[in-house]
Amino acid sequence: MLSFTTDEDYTQNYKFLIGSILPRPIAVISTKNENGTNNLAPFSFFNGFSAKPMIVGFAPIRRPNSGEKKDTLVNIEREKEFVVNFVTEKTADLVNLCSTELAVGEDEFEFSGLTPLQSEVVKAARMAESPIQFECVLRDIVSYGDEPGAGTLITGEVVRVHVDESVYEEGRINTADWLPMGRGAGNDWFSTKNPVEKKRLTKAQIQK
Ligand SMILES: Cc1cc2nc3c(=O)[nH]c(=O)nc-3n(C[C@H](O)[C@H](O)[C@H](O)COP(=O)(O)O)c2cc1C
User: Fold this and answer.
1) Ligand 1 center–CA 201 separation, angstroms
2) Which residue, 81, 11, 70, is CA-closest to 41?
3) Which is nearest to 46 in space by CA: 72, 66, 67?
4) How wide is the angle at C-alpha 45 spanned by C-alphas 93 and 53, nearest 5°?
5) Separation of CA 5 and ligand 1 centre (Å)
6) Between the CA of residue 11 and those of 16, 64, 137, what are the distances in Å?
């Protein structure tokens, strides 16, 4: 077994994180730029943290060389709201395009060909191609520093959930109907075409 300290260059820690925390869910975060255009970018340091209030969180990390904040963080600090969209097998290539570092204020919807859809509560646009969209109001911003690689945890309260009828059945979202994609190490992505079901033991079964 090899053992490492974590006080070296951040790139080593980053590789431990992305090589171990697998597969990672992907949030496609939409925000409003200061000039009124839309910003859209994928984040795989992402998860859900509370059902009521309904809280989700994700973490943009500071840019590799400059340590600059990503546009998504700058926009959320100013606007205090965002939309979480989800990536499917069909939209993965276009979402991947949205991770391109464009100039500040440039619209990733226009760049990628994805379609902005007006939200009901927040100013940030929804991604029309996403079968599920969460409109979120900012709850917390926790900064872990300003060096390259330092993360900022952003949490938001989901104030409106939109689910396409085609993926919603008897009060549940059906995975097979929308085929979400996950993120791997390096440039890997994960497909959800072959889920494996494992039933959990009930308390009664253990006590037998
Ligand atoms: C699938 C995928 C997941 C990503 N996850 C993250 C992440 O969790 N944190 C991060 O800082 N960057 C992540 N990136 C890179 C950002 O999407 C990229 O830096 C983007 O340009 C940021 O956009 P912004 O400057 O408009 O906020 C990811 C890229 C891809 C393709």
Assistant:
1) 38
2) 70
3) 72
4) 110
5) 26
6) 9, 9, 32
Structural fold of domain 10-206: Pnp Oxidase; Chain A (2.30.110)
C-alpha of residue 124 to centroid of ligand 1, in Å:
18
Cβ–ligand 1 distance for 37 under 6 Å, the answer: no
Is residue 10 within 8 Å of residue 148, measured between CB atoms? yes
Please name the residue whose Cα sits nearest to atom 20 of ligand 1: 99
Q: Is 71 in the pocket of ligand 1 (CB under 6 A)?
A: yes
Tens-digit pLDDT profile for the chain (208 aa)? 999 999 998 999 999 999 999 999 999 999 999 999 999 999 999 999 999 999 999 999 999 999 999 999 999 999 999 999 999 999 999 999 999 988 888 999 999 999 999 999 999 999 999 999 999 999 999 999 999 999 999 999 999 999 999 999 999 999 999 999 999 999 999 999 999 999 999 888 887 6
